[in-house]
Write a structure and sequence with these properties.
- The complex is a heterodimer of chains A (about 60) and B (about 350).
- Chain A has about 60 residues and is mostly helical.
- Helices cover about 45% and strands about 0% of the residues of chain A.
- Chain A is built from 2 helices and no strands.
- The longest helix of chain A is centred in the middle third of the chain and has 19 residues, at about 15-35.
- Chain A is flat, with a radius of gyration of 15 Å.
- Helices cover about 40% and strands about 10% of the residues of chain B.
- In chain B, strand 2 (about 75-80), helix 3 (about 85-95) and strand 3 (about 100-105) form a beta-alpha-beta unit.
- In chain B, the strands form 2 sheets. Chain B has a 6-stranded parallel β-sheet. Chain B has a 3-stranded antiparallel β-sheet with strand order 7-8-9, with no helix packed on it.
- Chain B has helices spanning about 25-40, 60-70, 85-95, 125-135, 155-165, 190-205, 210-225, 275-285, 290-305, 310, 315-325, 330-350; strands at about 50, 75-80, 100-105, 140-145, 170-175, 210, 240, 245-250, 270.
- The interface between A and B is large, with 46 and 66 residues.
């Protein structure tokens, strides 16, 4: 079966003007956290939705 | 790892059915788990073992130390309500290099649903625990349950957590789950405005790692860069949960300890009967029962929901407790925590 998420991705792209500086801000935060040798330290999906009643993070 | 089913609190929204009883994990269960986990940890850069409950600290330092002792090369985490944390516990955390996650829902009036068995508010005791952690310079994460997401609340909560001093924050909109049958259908506009306001608060002062908001921004960034298809993992981590009696529940820690007339006890095996790696491997190689239905449900989400690329599919426990089965798709939890989150971020972007 085809995926349906193009509807949402199109709406995200339609908000690009406002989103781009927000994303740039977030990426700057992640670079700062990760240190100069890492590219990014953003959360992975598995650290967000699979279980929400405890904290666990392998981001260091 | 569930060291005990017992909790010293009786929060109004708690989903756990046996939190008034001390179903305690024997050391033999921990040793059996470590037999597999120590090998897994040796092969991974980092490997987390999370002790949750019930309230893990109710078993006491000596016993929790015995349960942790068999593990080698793992990062130990405790998710706690913080009410029992004192200097002695902080020394224990230091000695065992334990990462701490605590549960608090904001200022006292927003934490009012966290009460003890006599109905007394737990807020002051939680804050004493936080003070001990800060005294010992132990960093901590926080989980915040939001029972009534609405405009005006997010900024207040974020300010509270900035002052609390946590390094990481997860926001859980209250869920109808387990023995918590409180309705969780919320007005879409209010929930969306909550998330939109939270995004704004984080962008203004991003000192805290903010789970949901940062994921939304990561997803948005990937879409804009044309790489959103690479965000979801190709293989789903079964995140094995080991209940106090050794039963292993995969994919959904929230189901540990529950039984259902149609699905049984949700366990894929017991570490006292079979090694954990064999339990996981067998269940994943040939999914049956509720796991097969849940995996089919995830494919139903993929085929029918435009938010799948963002969310990865509805969670098993929410499907069961809201829809009565695992192959249904959208739940109120999806709406509150995923759909409205992304829409709130888009609202903020469009208003910028």
């Amino acid at each position: 079966m085809p995926e349906q998420h193009d509807v949402v991705t199109e709406r995200v792209r339609a908000a690009a003007t406002g989103l781009a500086p927000m994303v740039a801000r977030a990426e700057a935060v992640w670079r700062e956290r990760a240190g100069p040798e890492a590219v990014v330290r953003a959360p992975d999906w598995e650290q967000v939705f699979p279980s929400q009643f405890y904290e666990f993070t392998n981001r260091r | 790892m569930q060291p005990t089913t017992l909790c010293n609190l009786n929060c109004a929204y708690c989903y756990l059915p046996f939190r008034s009883r001390d179903g305690r994990m024997p050391v033999e269960v921990a040793s059996a788990v470590a037999g597999t986990v120590n090998r897994w940890a040796a092969e991974a850069d980092q490997f987390s073992v999370v002790w949750h409950g019930g309230e893990p600290l109710t078993v006491g330092r000596a016993y929790l130390g015995e349960l942790m002792a068999p593990f080698r090369g793992v990062e130990q985490h405790i998710q706690t309500n913080a009410t029992l944390i004192d200097d002695a516990w902080c020394e224990f955390f230091r000695r065992h290099d334990v990462r701490i996650g605590l549960s608090i829902d904001g200022p006292a009036d927003h934490t009012a649903l966290r009460v003890d068995w006599a109905g007394r508010p737990a807020f002051d005791r939680i804050m004493r625990g936080v003070a001990a952690l800060r005294r010992h310079e132990i960093r901590f994460a926080a989980i915040c349950v939001v029972a009534d997401p609405r405009p005006g609340l997010a900024a207040e909560l974020y300010e509270f957590f900035l002052n609390l001093g946590c390094y990481w924050l997860g926001i859980n909109v209250e869920e109808r789950e387990g023995v918590n049958t409180r309705v969780n259908a919320r007005p879409a506009e209010a929930v969306q405005a909550f998330w939109s306001e939270l995004v704004a608060a984080w962008l203004a002062d991003p000192r805290i790692e903010l789970r949901e908001v940062e994921w939304a921004l990561r997803y948005a960034g990937a879409v804009l860069a044309g790489g959103a298809d690479d965000l979801l993992p190709a293989l789903r981590d079964p995140i094995p949960t080991v209940a106090h009696d050794g039963r292993v529940v995969l994919f959904s820690p929230e189901l540990a300890g529950f039984t259902d007339p149609a699905y049984g006890d949700f366990a894929s095996g017991n570490v006292l009967d079979r090694p954990l790696d064999e339990i996981v491997a067998a269940a994943v190689a040939a999914p049956t029962g509720w796991i097969a239905e849940y995996l089919a449900g995830t494919e139903n989400c993929r085929a029918s929901c435009p938010y799948f690329g963002f969310c990865g599919g509805g969670q098993a426990s929410n499907r069961l407790f809201e829809l009565g089965r695992f192959d249904g798709t959208v739940t109120d939890h999806c709406r509150n925590t995923k759909i409205r989150l992304l829409e709130g971020v888009l609202d903020h972007a469009r208003a910028a």
